[in-house]
Amino acid sequence: MKEKILVTGGTGYIGSHTVVELQNAGYEVVIVDNLSNSNADVVDSIEQISGIRPAFEKLDCLNLAGLDAVFAKYQGIKAIIHFAASKAVGESVQKPLLYYRNNLGSLINLLELMPKYGVEGIVFSSSCTVYGQPDQLPVTEEAPIKKAESPYGNTKQINEEIIRDYVASGAPIQAILLRYFNPIGAHPSALLGELPNGVPQNLVPYLTQTAIGIREKLSVFGDDYNTPDGSCIRDFINVVDLAKAHVVAIGRMLEGKQADKVEVFNIGTGRGVSVLELIHGFEEATGVKLNYQIVGRRAGDIEQVWANPERANKVLGWKAETNIEDTLRSAWNWQLKLRERGIQ
Ligand code: UD1
Q: How far apart are CA 223 and CA 242, in angstroms?
């Protein structure tokens, strides 16, 4: 058994896939999650896939005493992967204080406890949102950080800065900031996937819910952008590939291979795909016809962004492997499985 890793938000969409990959790689996992946007059943699914049941503590990361007790109970936690955060862009505009309190407070609590329990490093879930609309594409990690479009985006930027400032102060920790592009898809077993609360805000869950008849029509937000087909362009990254990036980041950190105490990596495919291309790709990959219509632009959307993932490819030795057809099929299989289970 390898080192013990604390995964906050480990029952969430990206967190749960990462726990599976960590366990497959031999790590021991302790999950902390307040279940605000996930379900405790996910722990069963993780066990079903990997054959190992991770430790699970229902806890809010804002609860400093509770977190302290978790570190005390599971002695020897070597590193943290911090997913737990609020992530709905629109909601963050309505409830900025909730977002600032949750997303900043949780990180600060974890950082504060790390030296006390000898935790060596933290992998932080950041986002390509920190680049805004980049001046150059594909975007590299050196691109300037633009003023955030939403309180949610701002929490990602500020959290990156908090980590840098803390390390610069001489705190005995290291950090890897992973800037995700657009994670989509589900585990090939169809036992894990994205389970949005209420009406999905993100493209792929809305698309699969439309395909299965929960939603009447998918709205494409704008076809008058300055892109080849007029719809927005994103870098859609398979969630299992993304999960594996965390495993290699943890390995690099714990093997003492980091060149800097804070390292940052883009985690994307390097390929831009438009919203309309994605819709047609889904139809081809699954044979399911989608009911969609073009509507006006969504406020705050970035026109186009995709990653230059070379640094992650070279330095981490990680590369996105799954093609978009397989990824879209996995999202569809997950939606079918949810129906079978009577969930959605
Ligand atoms: C958004 C956030 C990003 C955050 C991510 C995770 C912005 C600018 N970015 O990414 O910071 O990390 O969510 O929650 O808000 N679309 C449709 N119809 C739909 C839904 C989406 O056409 O019903 C389009 C959008 O206009 C966009 C693309 O699909 O062009 C992707 O949208 P979405 O899945 O919401 O992700 P982002 O907006 O890229």
A: 29
* Rounded Cα–Cα distance for residues 325 and 163 (Å): 37
How confident is the model at residue 186, as a pLDDT? 98
Quote the distance between the C-alpha of residue 97 and its chain's center.
Answer: 22
156 lines ligand 1 (CB under 6 A): no
Query: What is the assigned CATH class of domain 4-184+237-267?
Result: alpha beta
Q: What is the pLDDT of residue 166?
A: 98
pLDDT, tens digit (0-9, with 9 covering 90-100), for 207-242: 999 999 999 999 999 999 999 999 999 999 999 999
CA distances from 243 to 62, 83, 132, 274, 320 (A): 24, 11, 24, 23, 10
CA of 203 to the centre of ligand 1 (A): 6
Instruction: For residue 153, give the ligand 1 atom closest to its CA.
Output: 11
Close Cβ partners of 95 (under 8 Å, ≥ 6 residues apart): none
Strands (E), 188-307: 218-221, 233-234, 236-238, 262-267, 273-274, 292-295
CB 19 within 8 A of CB 32: no
Tell me whether residue 100 is one of the annotated catalytic residues. Answer: no
Nearest ligand 1 atom, CA 206 = 23
Report whether residue 89 contacts ligand 1, using a CB cutoff of 6 Å: yes
Cβ contact 278:327 at 8 Å: no
> Each residue of 286-310: pLDDT tens digit?
999 999 999 999 988 999 999 999 9
Here the tokens at position 30 are: 């302790």
Residue 135 is encoded by which pair of tokens?
């001046």
Tell me which residue of 152, 314, 293, 156 sits closest to 231, measured CA to CA: 293
Distance CA 178, CA 66 (A): 26
Indicate the pTM of the whole model.
Answer: 0.98
Q: 152, 166, 206, 225: which one is catalytic?
A: 152
pLDDT tens-digit map of 183-204: 999 999 999 999 988 899 999 9
Q: How far is CA 232 from CA 190, 226, 278, 317, in A?
A: 28, 8, 11, 30
